[in-house]
Amino acid sequence: MHAHPGAPPSRRRFLALAAGGAAAGAAALSGCALSTAGAAPGGSESVTMMVNLDDVSPELVKQAQKEIGVKITIVAYDITRLIAMLTNGNPPDLVRGLGALDAPYFAARDVAENLDPYFAKSTVLKVDDLDPANDLWRFDGTTQGKGPRYGMAKDFSQDAMFWYNTAHFDKAGVDYPSDTDPITYEEWLDNAKRLVQRKNGQTTVYGGSYNGLGLGILFTNLTAAAGGSLFSDDFSRVDFTSPEARRALTWYVDYAKTRVGPSLIQPNPDAWDGPTYVASRMAMSGSGYWLGGMINAEAKVAEVSRLAPAPVFEGGPRISACQGGTGMWMPKKARNKDAAWRVFEWFFGEAPAKARAEGGWGIPTLKSLQSLMPDKEDYQKRVLEVQRAELKHFSVTPFTPYIKTEAIDAIINQIIPAAMNGQLSVDTLAGRLNSSVNEQMKRGKEQVG
Amino acid sequence: MTVGQIPEIPQVTGQPRKVARTGAVRSGDLPRTSMTARRHRAFYMFTSPWIIGFLLLTIGPMAYALWLSFTTFDGISPNWKYVGFGNYQELLSDSVTWDSLGRAGLFAITSVPLSIIAGMGLAVLVNRPLKARGLWRTLLYLPAVVPPVGAGLIFKQLFNRDSGATNGVLNIFGIDAIAWLDDPYARYVILMAVLWAAGNIMIISLAGLQDVPRELHEAARIDGASAWRTFRSITVPLLSPVLLFQAVTGMIASVQTIMPMLLAADASPKGVTSIPQSNYMYMMHVFAEYFALGRYGYGSALLWVLFVLILIATGLIFKFTSGVVFYNVDPEAKK
């Protein structure tokens, strides 16, 4: 039955019209969604970068426009937003990522662009000038460190090294660690116990902090330092019950139990080591060379700060891996790949790369830029010497493509506090971790295919 | 004439309506159907933005989430599949789900009554004649306008074991520092954060209190009723619709609280899982499943189950309070 002209719309018709309006609205919203690439006003190319806001400052955006004629639009890094953008086929042109963890994950899911052809023809980023740390961004379908390059690190550190404050060592009467020979993890923990300062139940100075860039990657590296591997050969399973993994777990649980440093059961009010160490409220920080960028800005702290080699387990191999390798990758569906590559070259090989190298925020990933690392002051020279010696022990500890780093950290975060509080034995902890992580990895493997 | 009734257009008996040569009805002399149509059109015009928004931003995402809940979609991997009710079956045997739901329920049944009592108590206090009453009302309401993220930061700093002011005060009295943000104390910090913002409930209760006819109180006083009796037998019954509203909205908000995440040392997808167990409530579990584990399908199933449970809980609250809530008008009366 048709309504006669002038009659009010029926409820049914009104809802139908509203649904139509909603559909039109959805289309309009979709049209209004962030355009990720294309020509910018004025004829220059436009590239969208999803990065942390301090990775690419507004000044750097202006500099890019001036130097390479590319307009950069910054989108704050957010994994949920990235997934939404990837899902709707409208990803950013360049995305921030941790080579050590993100490279295999995104490459295995076929969303990252193989950059080998770009590197092959680049005059700025020559393959023989790339530091081996960039191998973190390689993945051959099974193993990290081999195969095509899916990204590049902006700088890197050997994250198992640690900084220490000599003033706290002097006060506690603890010998300084050697610049060349690593101490053992057990010695590190003993030192931390002697260095920690407490008053009325409050920790006023942490003896040391050793949390890595996340517990998943930390245990991967600690297990490797104990002479084993956390992952099976095909990276489809973990084994926390192996003697090496148990050794790693036992050491870390002891570290947390003694409450000498921040952990899940004793969170750092500053959220991370940097501000706490620079405020002289931490005697040792398990952070690599990159923290020097922050330390150098505080001359008083810099003068009493030294960098020490990565600890070893008694009888274990000497390895010093990079746990991060923060850099960028290009989504396969990026709209403006050539302009994105131009930005990539500029960011990793030209003015911004030189500025980063001079600042001491990590080791430059181009060998040709490593001579720019700060060495004017005596303390900088000393740090640089230790770092250069440590480079001989650099290695890539491969990570699995079947689980996100957030996922493995999430599972560990949920189970390990009970062990830290003494309610769970390390054996039980290892068993539970195996069960939960392997279940998640099984799902991941099915989804990758 | 009741509100919403359409006024009748007066018609002069025996006088034909004046129709122009074109046949159109002159303005001011509109037929009743045309006026009704205009009113309906106006109604639909004014409500359509909301209806469209509701369809676009509520029904659409809910339908999408429902579809996702039948899949293993993780947002990025190519080989996700349809699993029917598999996620719902898994949910039934997932102890983390039930534990987190239990904690959320416990939080709701403690925080909602406590905050209503606190808010109503404050409302009674600031409804009395006192000096600088406006200032008191403003001061008590202020915490409620602090954004939750700000409130989270404040409480995180206040209760930090090593640098928080709370332990500083305890130290003055010779009491050793307490790890407030860890188990088993973390749950009390959340409760305090909720009570701190009871100003919202105070304002609504205050509006309700001011609507209570003064003569009822005067009559009770003349009859010799005590202040408590007056409060219990007059104030509370007349405030009961307001209290019911606060109980329902409070329950819905508290089972979905994200305050534990704001108090976490690391408010990121993986950081959410480092929240102490006593504060690991349902929405934390949902957040972790979605964004830390990348299980969009399972996370969506969790959300749908929560939605249904909230509907049931709301229905039960209405059912069990129907006899005790006092309405000035009969809500069941035919319009």
Task: Kindly describe this structure.
- The complex is a heterodimer of chains A (449) and B (335).
- Chain A is an alpha+beta fold and 449 residues long.
- Chain A folds into 2 domains: 37-157 and 323-395, 3-Layer(aba) Sandwich (D-Maltodextrin-Binding Protein, domain 2); 162-319 and 402-448, D-Maltodextrin-Binding Protein, domain 2, CATH 3.40.190.10.
- Helices cover 43% and strands 14% of the residues of chain A.
- In chain A, the strands form 6 sheets. In chain A, strands 1, 2, 3, 4, 7 and 15 form a 6-stranded mixed beta sheet that branches. A 3-stranded antiparallel beta sheet of chain A has the order 12-9-13. Chain A has a two-stranded antiparallel ribbon with strand order 5-6.
- In chain A, helix 8 (215-225) packs across helix 9 (243-258), helix 13 (337-349) runs parallel beside helix 14 and helix 16 (405-420) runs antiparallel to helix 17.
- The longest helix of chain A is centred in the last third of the chain and has 23 residues, at 426-448.
- Chain B is an all-alpha fold and 335 residues long.
- Chain B has a domain at 95-321: MetI-like fold.
- Chain B is built from 13 helices and no strands.
- The longest helix of chain B is centred in the first third of the chain and has 37 residues, at 32-68.
- Chain B is globular, with a radius of gyration of 27 Å.
- The model of chain B is unreliable at 1-25 (pLDDT under 50).
- The interface between A and B is large, with 55 and 58 residues.
Q: Please, how many helices of chain B?
A: 13
Q: What does the average pLDDT of chain B come to? A: 85
- Strand-pairing-aware structural class of chain A: alpha+beta
Amino- and carboxy-terminal Cα gap of chain B: 12 Å
Shape of chain A: globular
Please identify the structural class of chain B as seen in this structure: mainly alpha
Identify the CATH homologous superfamily of the largest domain in chain A.
Periplasmic binding protein-like II
Number of strands of chain A: 17
Helix content of chain B: 55-70%
Output the CATH homologous superfamily of the domain at 95-321 in chain B: MetI-like
* Major beta sheet summary of chain A: 6 strands, mixed
Give the count of helical stretches of chain A.
17
Proportion of residues in β-strands of chain A: 5-15%
Low-confidence stretches of chain B: 1-25
Largest interface: A-B, 55 and 58 residues
CATH architecture of the domain at 95-321 in chain B: Orthogonal Bundle
Question: Please, what is the oligomeric state?
Answer: heterodimer
The level 1 CATH classification of the largest domain in chain A is: Alpha Beta
Top-tier CATH class of the domain at 95-321 in chain B: Mainly Alpha
CATH topology of the largest domain in chain A: D-Maltodextrin-Binding Protein, domain 2
